[in-house]
Amino acid sequence: MSEEAAHEPMTRRQRREAAMSDTGPIPLPHFVQEAYRPLVTIVVLAGCALLAVSGFAGSGLVALTLLLGGGIIAWGWAGLLALPSPRGTMGVLWFGNLALVGAAVAVTEEPYLRWLPGALALSLLVAFVHQLARRDGRPRLVESVASTVAALAIMTSGACLVPLPFTLGGGHVVAAAAGAIGASALTDLCGKWERLRPWLLPLAMVGGGLTSVAFVTLSGGFTWGPAALLGVVAAGVSHAVRRLLGHQPTMAGARPQLVSAIASLMTPGVVVYVVSRLFVA
Fold first, then answer.
1. What pTM does this model have?
2. Is residue 238 a contact partner of residue 264, using CB atoms and an 8 Å limit?
3. S-S: 227 plus which of 72, 90, 149, 216, CB 3.0-4.6 Å?
4. Residues 204-213: pLDDT tens digits?
5. pLDDT tens across 45-74, in order?
6. Dihedral of the CA atoms 199, 259, 235, 67 (nearest 10)?
7. Are 92 and 130 within 8 A, CB to CB?
8. In the 3-class helix/strand/coil scheme, how is 14-69 assigned residue by residue?
């Protein structure tokens, strides 16, 4: 090849072929490399145990459990995402936590979640007022608003679990979902081995489905078909949240890991509620 031809720019096809011929190791994303966090698994398992017991004890104890979980998220969410105005964000999230759980507790008959949209709307309004009241020049405004809304969405999803003990088989649904989430957290420990890291999501979903089916088979709460669906989706959503938050630089600290664990426990709530109302109750 002449020197002139060697300096000619490569065509798109040539660049694609050159990339495909590179057999070097493909670097794993940061969140996969940091998949092994035993503290997160321990916190998720403890939360699942408390939630399962609460499901059989009644709606009030489920509400207290979720109020505690929402309080942990409010306490550490700004630190997890390194948000500006952390005290204001904490206040907004505490208000939202109380409003959302209170709206779910206040209704004891169908439709159980009729006040939840209003509580969420009020919480969003408070979040926007907080941003207007900031006196720091409002740096990273969009990021701050989006992150606060995301935390409120997680709390809203968790609040959907509150009325389930009132429904047919609701206690068994909450306990089966908690078992599935706990199983998905246990599969995270496989992240210690690099070869298994790309398979963590399928492992979590299979483990969650099997755990849920095993639970309802022993307890007789409802049939195995809805149990399998419930376990697979709850475990998958829970794992996805931990995977999403796991790549944050702040996750080296204990508080962000605690918040990540609780968020992964509460986020599947709306999915659990939908599966329960469509296929169980």
1. 0.86
2. yes
3. 216
4. 999 999 999 9
5. 999 999 999 999 999 999 999 999 999 999
6. 180
7. yes
8. HHHHHHHCCCCCCCCCHHHHCCCCHHHHHHHHHHHHHHHHHHHHCHHHHHHHHHHH
